[in-house]
Amino acid sequence: MADNNAAGNWASVHATILILCFAIACCCKAKGMSHALVDTFLGANLRRITYDIRPGLNHEKVFNVLHFGANPDGRKDSTQPFIRAWRAACGFKGRSSLLIPGGTFLLSEIVFAGPCSGPSPTIVQVIGTLKATTDIREYSSSEWVLFQSISGLVIKGSGTFDGQGGAVWKYDCKDNKNCVQLPSNIKFNKVTNGVLQGITSLNSKGVHVFITQCEDIRVHNIRVIAPGDSPNTDGIHVSHSNNVRIAETIIRTGDDCVSMIQGATNVAINKLTCGPGHGISVGSLGKYRHEEDVRGIVVKNCTLSGTDNGVRIKTWPGSDSSSASGMLFQDIIMNNVKNPIIIDQRYCDRSSKCTKEPSRVRISNVYYVNIKGTSSSAVAVNLMCSKQFPCQDVHFYNIDLRYELKGMGASTATCANAVVRYGGRQNPPPCK
């Protein structure tokens, strides 16, 4: 992980530069001059992964799960053959890849653990369908397929991870006291220099893709699919991780398309299509004691359709002290979104006891730039910030969010405990 103090100073410098750019842009606008906002959050903080993963280019040895006894008919459990194939690939001292060919493979809880012996990356080529068993008693932890303690990992292909969540969503904790934490489809834990590309995550029991305690992760061109009413099926969930890029991905699910919680730093989301779902969320934050800060979040060129929220920051009341800073939401299209722009520092779900104490999560340096489309609710911009620590340096530039229901009046904005600055077009009008 990058040094926390150094990263924090870097984010502060970048935020200061962006403030200057914002001011210059607004000044130029007033004088009728052309202008451009510079995305200063991207740059040295987001390192690139340069693996060339074209088939056969690296002359890796292929370990086919069929050769280790896996059954492609989808009826016989192939967990142990998969484990044997992975151990052989990971333990090989040369370049290696694990091949999951066409067919359907039934798997219960499985761990692909490193470190691996050969040069990185270890490649997992997924062509077929992995189908999860549905007996929840077979899952001792909160994941179905876990990749752990690996430096240099590429998971690619047109295959599908089918969690068969419909069989177990009734056990979810949202409305059930006798519940269990349902496992995620794919989890990265302590993975560095990892790539997830091309696959489909279908009907996860819990979170689809869970990234935690990771460094330098790329998620590209994947599809996440679950019904809009599936509980707690976040598309991509990021925590305690640095330098994560998510791009050109489609997420249709029952919870947040992307959620970034404590310890998420330098996360860039680009060209994401979201909906149905709960939108793109920073948080929830402050639910647990001594949470790590969140900083350096960039969300650009995304489209959200029919979601419960658009771009959201949510924190729990009565939280410990922490911060969320340096966030940019730019060039985003909202189609019939219920809460297009929302900061909710009174967040509390129905399964927990709520408190009237203010949130102690400090939110600052937040930029909303070139966001347009339609809102399905009258309040298109809603800032509900902490009484104890009001939101600081919240900037709006070129916002055009129309109320979807014609004849019901124009969209409005509400602000509480927020220091807000405006530039360019503002629809709804700025808070008074």
From TrEMBL:
Record-level GO BP terms: carbohydrate metabolic process; cell wall organization
GO molecular function: polygalacturonase activity
InterPro entries cross-referenced by the UniProt entry: Glyco_hydro_28 (IPR000743), PbH1 (IPR006626), Pectin_lyas_fold (IPR012334), Pectin_lyase_fold/virulence (IPR011050)
Pfam family, one: Glyco_hydro_28
Main location: secreted
Alphabetical list of Gene3D superfamilies matching this protein: Single-stranded right-handed beta-helix, Pectin lyase-like
Chain segments annotated as coiled-coil in the UniProt record: none
Alphabetically ordered keywords of this record: Cell wall, Cell wall biogenesis/degradation, Glycosidase, Hydrolase, Secreted
Catalytic residues of the enzyme: 278
Protein family membership: Belongs to the glycosyl hydrolase 28 family.
Identification of the protein by name: Exopolygalacturonase-like
Organism of this sequence: Carya illinoinensis (Pecan)
